[in-house]
């Protein structure tokens, strides 16, 4: 196979498909080399970078930096690219149509500050494959008394019960009360 044949194979599939644009939303730790670690699997798997929006001034609920990467690749390669980015240890928040399709709003009540609310949120996101999209904390008597937090969680369609189970387990461990919602479908 000639170099020209290889190049044509990389830009066009047997069905005559051309590369398509895709967007991947990532969450990076604020350490040197993290962006490079996220981009390398894209290039190594046939992705062509179109743009990178690195939101250095903003932080996700877990204290990481959100990064949006626009790329193009053959349709059959996109899933491989996303898997390779995840395999590199990078948290993929959203990959094109793969998005969190359900939303849960729930309340946590108890000694949220002393039980480490940040740890609670991190554990929910890690164990339940969910993301915290909004958080409101109310501590009317200061941090020494009970407080409440309203959490808006986004999760994959059909995974709400898994998320609730993780939240319940953490709440029992930390002596918190959970006021559970009805699940809501999002567009």
Describe the protein.
With 187 residues, the chain is an alpha+beta fold. The chain starts with a helix and ends with a strand. A hairpin with an 8-residue loop joins strand 6 (130-138) and strand 7. Helix 2 (34-44) runs antiparallel to helix 3 and helix 4 runs antiparallel to helix 5. Strands 5, 6, 7, 8 and 9 form a five-stranded antiparallel sheet that branches. It has a four-stranded antiparallel sheet with strand order 2-3-1-4, with helices on one face. Residues 1-13 and 183-187 have low confidence and may be disordered. The protein contains five helices and nine strands; from the N terminus they run αβαββαββαββαββ.
Question: Which keywords apply here?
Answer:
30% helix; 5-stranded antiparallel beta sheet; 187 residues; disordered C terminus
